[in-house]
Specification:
Elements (H helix, E strand, L loop, with lengths): L1 H31 L10 H12 L9 H17 L8 H4 L1 H13 L2 H26 L15 H73 L4 H26 L21 H9 L4 E7 L6 H22 L3 E9 L2 E8 L14 H12 L3 E6 L5 E8 L3 H4 L1
Parallel strand pairs: 1-2
Antiparallel strand pairs: 2-3, 3-5, 4-5
Helix pairs in contact: 1-2, 2-3, 3-5, 3-6, 5-6, 5-7, 6-7, 7-8, 7-10, 10-11
Length: about 400
């Protein structure tokens, strides 16, 4: 980023240096060879005045207001002393025009207003006075190649300065709008990332704590009668809590600063971890039947989404359904993943369906990210059914 900015500064300085040289040459030649009476003094004076007006433009980006003030004063002094070309005095004010544009883009409302007022006051005070001092008659000017009118000279200089200033203000406004839009997009990105992290934490903590609560309840009731089963329940609690802590550390690692040492963590969970997830639930007393078909080569983000949907569905089974059997099917066909989770839990629920809590909302948001569909509801024969279909782009399509 710094190298790009440095390159941009170098290019801008080179362009401004060339522009300043051209403006100096134009102002000097306009003074020495004007349509009206030429400058009667030494040529070096004309070149000196042109340099005073044009050369500061080379550093206008670094010091916009001082450069504008300097070239405006130089142009006004040159006009007042007659070191300009009658008929083309506006050429001497071209550096003022360019510096005024830069000042308008770099200044606030007050500074820009002062710049505009001073940029218009300089030609308005000096051009009519020069014509009066030289006694130039627009009708009878034998030394002139064209009719000379101070009103025309003043109008051209004033219009150029005002137009450049207006363009500068519009450019500043557009830059401010673009900056606000960029900041808003950054805030939206942060909010979206926080929402994603919140969903991940909900899935991890909700599933793990549900399983831990079930196993802790079992261990509490059989601690004295069946110590072997109690020990097995405690082992399950230990494995589940360790896995949950690992996933939480992995998730929270994205919130660390880049200078913080990242923890050595494994890859994000996916369909390959579903058998282990099923085993943990089987140890909690739920008979889980898992079927994976063609889910070996899913994109990483889709793979994680499939895992989270199955995890949340099984968590709801453990938490709400009081089921004894659950069947999970993950099938991939034609760049589409179909996920189906069926349980034989309570057939009659108070509301006729399972409450749509944060779990189902989170699953719908995950599926909708890929333009997929999700349906969830009670089965006519009893139990609950969750079906999700997720389309995704294959490696060939992404290329």
């Amino acid at each position: 980023m710094r190298s790009r900015r440095f390159g941009f500064d170098v290019r801008g300085t080179v362009v401004d240096g060339v522009t300043a040289t051209v403006l100096v040459s134009l102002a000097a030649h306009a003074t020495l060879e004007p349509p009206g009476p030429p400058f009667a003094g030494p040529a070096w004076v004309a070149w000196l005045a042109a340099a005073a007006v044009g050369l500061p433009v080379a550093v206008r980006r670094r010091w916009p207001l001082p450069v504008f003030a300097g070239v405006t004063v130089a142009a006004a002094v040159a006009t007042a002393f007659g070191v300009v070309g009658p008929g083309v005095i506006w050429v001497t004010y071209l550096p003022v025009t360019l510096a005024g544009y830069t000042a308008a883009t770099a200044s606030g409302p007050v500074g820009a207003a002062v710049a505009l007022a001073s940029g218009l006051a300089a030609p308005a005070a000096t051009i009519p006075w020069l014509y009066q001092r030289l006694g130039i008659d627009p009708v009878d000017a034998p030394a002139s190649e064209a009719p000379l009118w101070w009103q025309v000279e003043l109008g051209m200089a004033a219009v150029a300065v005002a137009a450049a200033w207006a363009i500068g203000r519009v450019v500043r406004w557009r830059r401010a709008v673009q900056a606000d839009l960029a900041r808003q997009l950054a805030r939206d990105a942060v909010a979206a990332e926080r929402l994603r992290i919140a969903r991940e934490l909900h899935d991890i903590v909700g599933h793990s704590m549900s399983l831990i609560a079930v196993k802790a309840t079992v261990a509490n009731h059989i601690a004295e009668q069946r110590p072997a089963e109690t020990r097995a329940a405690l082992v399950t609690i230990e494995r589940t809590s360790r896995a949950a802590l690992t996933e939480i550390r992995r998730l929270l690692d994205v919130l660390r600063a880049e200078t913080d040492p990242a923890a050595e963590l494994g890859p994000a969970p996916g369909t390959a971890d579903l058998p282990d997830l099923a085993d943990r639930l089987r140890s909690a007393g739920l008979r889980v039947e898992l079927s994976l078909d063609g889910a070996d080569d899913l994109p990483q983000a889709v793979d994680l989404t499939v895992f989270r949907i199955v995890q949340e569905s099984l968590t709801n089974v453990v938490r709400h359904a009081r089921a004894g059997h659950c069947r999970v099917t993950v099938r991939v066909r034609d760049a589409r993943v179909r996920i189906e989770v069926l349980d034989d839990g309570r057939a009659h629920r108070p509301s006729g369906r399972r409450p749509a809590g944060r779990g189902l909302i989170g699953m719908r948001e995950r599926v909708s990210t890929y333009g997929g569909t999700l349906s969830a509801g009670p089965r006519p024969e009893g139990g609950f059914r969750v079906v999700a279909e997720i389309p995704y782009a294959t490696a060939e399509e992404a290329a």
